[in-house]
Amino acid sequence: MNFRRSALVATLSVVALTAAACGGDSEETATDVPVADAPEFEEGTTMAELAEAGSITIGTKYDQPGFGLETLDGELEGFDVEIAKIIAAELGIAEEDIQWEQTPSAVREEVIEDGEVDMVVATYTINDERAERITFAGPYYEAGQQIMVAADNDEITGPESFTENPELKVCSVTGSTPAEQIKQYLANEADQLVLFDEYSQCADSLSNGQVDAVTTDNVILLGFVSESDGEFKLVGEQFTEEPYGIGIEKGDVAFCEFINETLAANEEAYVAAWEATAGQIEGTQTPELPEPAECV
Ligand code: GLU
């Protein structure tokens, strides 16, 4: 099965249903946060600049069902997309004034440092190494790394299976935390670890039998399982913690605090965003907004 294509086809039918339910208004957001009318911010802040510009550039994923997925008509949908829209709305920026930029895992710090995007909302784990280059708002969700295999695979039961069976191959994405964290379980990294730029490429490789497993965050994998029509399953427990943050320019504490306050003030929209997106996937649970970390 081609996971890019199947994701798009599934999305098309959802869009058609939504359009019917909303009388043709497929523009409606899941979260329904009103766009602030001429909000005022302290001069010189990122918020003031963005509010005045009336537009914002946001990096996200385009191939991850439930979090950031491009539909056939070029729209984006997913929990990350909705979180980004909530923040934009509080800046007085409507969703049609958001410029989206596809940001695969490996380029996220770079696009923030280069000023190509104003923020990244892209299943982006907060960690110390990344925090040396950028500032994280959040966390807004807590994921954990897990393993996905073909539904008829009884050999792989967790990460230790790769230590015990050096012939098994596992796929992940360049520049991701799961790609790093799986290495300690590999008997032979050079042969066992297969890296692509995007997880949909890993899902295709699993489908083709080129690899035996895919590893990344549980919620990302659940999205592929739900698209797979019974072809894939998750095995074992989550074996890491992956708190998702919103990446912004290093040291922009005021913007970071604004983002945290915005999420805290919109908990209802946060839950609605989840339920309309990742919450539709079997096996997911509605989260509570975590306590924010200090902005540094
Ligand atoms: N949350 C992990 C990370 O930030 C994996 C998901 C991803 O690659 O986007 O690296």
What does this protein structure show overall?
Residues 55-278 form the Solute-binding protein family 3/N-terminal domain. This is Amino acid ABC transporter substrate-binding protein (PAAT family). Keywords: Signal, Transport. Residues 1-21 form the signal peptide. One of its GO terms (biological process) is amino acid transport. With 296 residues, this protein is α/β, with parallel strands linked by helices. The protein folds into 2 domains: 6-139 and 244-280, 3-Layer(aba) Sandwich (D-Maltodextrin-Binding Protein, domain 2); 145-235, D-Maltodextrin-Binding Protein, domain 2 (3-Layer(aba) Sandwich), CATH 3.40.190.10. The chain is built from 12 helices and 13 strands. The strands form 4 sheets. Strands 10-9-11-8-12 form a 5-stranded mixed sheet. The longest helix has 19 residues, at 3-21. The termini are far apart. The relative contact order is 0.19. The model is unreliable at 5-28 (pLDDT under 50). The structure holds glutamic acid (GLU). Glutamic acid (GLU) is lined by residues 105, 122-125, 173, 176-178, 216-217, 220, 242. Glutamic acid binds at residues 105, 122-125, 173, 176-178, 216-217, 220, 242.
